[in-house]
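sorry for the late reply, my laptop died twice this morning and i had to redo everyting from scratch. anyway the thing you sent over, i finally got around to it. pasting the sequence first so we're on the same page, its 122 residues, then the predicted structure underneath. double check i copied it right bc i was rushing
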Amino acid sequence: MARIAGVNIPTNKRVVIALQYIHGIGQQKAKEIVEKVGIEDARRVNSLSDAEVLQIRETIDRDYLVEGDLRRETSMNIKRLMDLACYRGLRHRKGLPVRGQRTHTNARTRKGPAKPIAGKKK
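ok and here's the structure:
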């Protein structure tokens, strides 16, 4: 099993798909990495040599922000907004949608399950 950026990537999948298991690498970045290293699209992870896995690992470490560093940067950006007390920061603080969605109905993912209001019978 190949371990890249602290993540065990699945061995029986194609390299482009397997790289997407790393937080911060999507379809486009995975294709870029495979192109840079010079691996065919159809190759599977279990057919990669140790040298190729090492090349992929070095490319990701050198050129991309992934996993813990990316999560840390994202959380620091949110914390900065909250400290500034700007509108977006206040929405983060209250646990409401940040990007202008309606909250009269919906927004359940952000607000959590509906809470019944006592004394509304009759």
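The domain at 68-111 is CATH 4.10.910.10 (30s ribosomal protein s13; domain 2).
thats about all i looked at so far, will dig more tmrw
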